[in-house]
Amino acid sequence: MGLTVIDGVELGRRLSMAGAVDAVEAALLGGLDPEADVARSAVEVPAGQLLLMPAAGERYVGVKVAGVAPANPALGLPRIVASYLLADAATLRPVALLDGSALTSLRTPAVSAVAVRRLAVPEARRLVVFGTGPQAWGHVAALREVRPVDRVGVVARSPERGRELVERCRNAGLAAELVGADAVAEADLVACCTSAREPLFDGRAVADHATVVAMGSHEPTAREVDGALVRRSTVVVEARASALREAGDLCVPLAAGEIGPDVIAGNMAELVRGELPLPGDRPRLFKGVGMSWQDLVVATAAMG
User: Fold this and answer.
1) Strand, coil or helix: 143
2) Model pTM?
3) Which residues of the chain, if any, have pLDDT below 50?
């Protein structure tokens, strides 16, 4: 039997965003332990980095090879390109090759949506998105699956790309406009989907009832949110181990002594199982770095 090739179009046909959200949630409810995930390894190459992300499950094992090429956007290419090899768990025989970039564009927003389903106030309607790439649109689509989002503010470095995302949101039936970073003060949900190295907004401006998702970086020195937001928020991460190793939004203020490791309220599994107290008088922050188990869970769901 030959290798099944699943490109981005076929992946979307096989698995919807709602299906990906449900698959991630079901895996966590079924006992998956995010803390047991294998750490990604990074190999420096002339064009950037190669990231290797293996994971093992009962039916399949898989590995994603992601290339991070900072010069790509100037060439009209994605900054991150990836492939995902899926193999039979019992024999390690390869069974499918997936478009890893499309897989990432599906699984990352799905993971955020699982967190937002537990963290955000039920009536959350106003979303502010930082970024204009695939993850920005993916988060609009995913967060609509779990909350009644009907208004989107887009914060963009490039006005042209920002207008394109606004138009895409409007075509999907949403009220959308370009906004400045100060729009976080009026937001119920904030999604940070950028490659920023420094905080994107003043964390003191975020409303007490709001939920913020920061997923743009897996580097311990890169930040999308500031220490002020971290200190005043209930912080949930995919896994404590990966967050303390790779999440610059936490690692930088930790290194500066602004916060301690106990700032993390819990991980995704604890959140989904209802084990975390969620005070209503402060923002809620979900920090994701992207983990290998997520790719495998969504790829497995796409196989049916």
Assistant:
1) helix
2) 0.95
3) none
